[in-house]
Amino acid sequence: MTVLIAGCGDLGTEAGLRFAAAGFSVLGWRRSPEKIPAPIQAQAADLRGELPRIPGDTDVVVIAVAASERTEAAYRAAYVDGTANVLNALERDGGRPRRILFVSSTAVYGDAGGGWLDEDSPTDPASVTGAVIREAEELLHSRRPDAIVLRLAGIYGPGRTRLIDQVRAGISNPGPGQLTNRIHRDDAAAAIVHLTTAVADPAPLYLGVDDEPVELAQVLEFLSGELGVPLDPAPADQGQRRASRGGNRRLSNARLHGTGFDFSYPTFREGYRAVLAGDGVRHA
């Protein structure tokens, strides 16, 4: 059986390697196929254009696109047009994979005033890019109602060290009030494999977030302690300004847990300690 990773970037590659380790033949589509490691079979493909033929034994398709820039046009080309093109290619080649999974984003939700949201909560994107991603979800389910949408929160992990870099640079503590929902890259990839191979009757939608929504200030303070780098105090009104922005919400992973999925990094603490140990970032 073949797994097709349509958009084999960092997350798609990690998922592809896990599929390969489970015994699948994995085909990865990417504009720069030389960046795809073995044992994934790399193939040049631009999801915005004409796509290669899809193997007849393709059992799982993972659509994991990424926009080239944060504009409506770039997001529409990647998420809406790219998803439609993959579905068109499946129809062209007579493909009927058992599972299709689309990697989405929790950016489709709005501000919840610090409250809890789950898969049944209404979407209310605060940005045009979030609205485009929601449009892509709707397109997918209109054509494949049995497809799985996995809405991922902020991904961190190997090579994704923005907060670590900011702490090292002496970023100011944002103060209380700004919530963040996160997931380690490896857990996100593991969830993709789990939902497409280990769940007999998956739901159409899952939230990919770890066990602990947390204030950004707590994450920065934790990293400050791990790195031995003090944080500058926040201006008196900074926490209030940050808290007023969209996205102040706590996201539940109960549905994902209910499938039997276990997180390797259930909170940011375990995840960032692994990043610090594995990315060559050492305590000061």
TrEMBL record:
InterPro entries: Epimerase_deHydtase (IPR001509), NAD(P)-bd_dom_sf (IPR036291), NAD(P)-dependent_oxidoreduct (IPR051783). Residues 11-198 form the NAD-dependent epimerase/dehydratase domain. CDD domains: SDR_a4 (cd05266). Residues 231-253 are annotated as: Disordered. It comes from the Bacteria. PANTHER family: NAD(P)-BINDING DOMAIN-CONTAINING PROTEIN-RELATED (PTHR48079:SF6), PROTEIN YEEZ (PTHR48079). This is SDR family oxidoreductase. It comes from Arthrobacter gallicola.
